[in-house]
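Ticket opened by: R.M.
Priority: normal
Category: complex prediction / small molecule

The reporter submitted a protein together with magnesium ion and asked that the result be attached to this ticket for the collaborator who will pick it up next week. Submitted input follows.
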Amino acid sequence: MAEVKKIAVIAGDGIGPEVVAEAEKVLKKTEELFGYQFELEHGLFGGIAIDEKGTPLPQETLDLCKKADAVLLGAVGGPKWDNNSKELRPETGLLGIRKALGLFSNIRPAVVFDCLKDASTLKPEVLEGTDLIVIRELTGGIYFGEKFRRDTENGQEAVDTCVYNVTEVERIVRQGFEVARTRRKKLASVDKANVLETSRLWRETVNRIAPEYPDVEVEHVLVDNCAMQLLRRPSSFDVIVTENMFGDILSDEAAMLTGSIGMLQSASMGEGSFGLYEPVHGSAPDIAGQGIANPIATILSVALMFRLTFGYAEAADVIERAVKNVLDAGHRTGDIAVDKSKSIGTVAMGELIVNAMAR
Ligand code: NAI
Ligand code: MG
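Result attached by the on-call engineer:
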């Protein structure tokens, strides 16, 4: 019997619980197929935690995550909490959990499924062969810098500060090189070194470390140029490493190459194998409760967990192959369907994938 693995499951708000339920079915199926043992413990997080516990990130949820081997997260947020004060916003919990768990990198693969090339707004020949990973720094930069308002003679002024220290840059850049090494050995480091001091430190750090990875080819790309090249030549990218805000934007752009944000999995990692796995998308309040959300991003997040945290590569292959087979057979949720009238719901998609899973 395999060792018991503890997974903290945090469904969150909106479509979070709907898509996480399907991912849990996939986990159960791998127990059947491979004899794995997962101990799932559920915690409150985000808007629902604000309603029930008065804080987006209750201590007991954080404790649950800390004693787990991995965390599976749905999504948080929604219009109900949008006007709350900062401490009582779901997104504050999201930033807080990453910080508290020491998660400094966000890993987002963007792989174009051949049979979904028609669901993207880009031409199929541009998308052909696209298989890239965006690695985004998560704990520094402008999202965490000092922010405040002040009154001036010209009215109110708002200030956000962007801070990076060399240790923060070095550990994420090293992860970029390491991941590139396991793939096509190409690293695009994205910055705005022509304007920003933090970017100049970033670029210096990349250049200092690069000689330790002679097998990896490094390209420096300015962020605005990267935004363009992702649309012009996406298949030429292998691993992109960048700071927090640039990575937030570029990874959403990369998401669109695949046709839908409902297809994209992600991992947030620190040192070691612990990771938090979640779909890239948010709580999608516009479709929540309708049973039509695409569960594939969350299901593929489980595959990523198997690869990066548990080393269950064979089971990860089984999940990814099942997703591919179901898509190849023509099944689509609304977000990836060309003919929306023939689309299927969240539960139906989850069940098709579970049934397609075989060793
Ligand atoms: P979103 O990703 O929730 O939705 C954007 C659009 O994509 C919507 O039209 C939605 O219906 C669609 N969509 C997203 N996931 C889908 C899925 N699985 N299947 C089918 N369609 C899907 O982003 P939005 O609207 O900007 O944010 C909504 C809420 O989610 C906000 O409160 C935001 O703060 C929060 N959010 C939370 C995140 C997280 O928990 N990690 C990440 C991004 C946003
Ligand atoms: Mg985002």
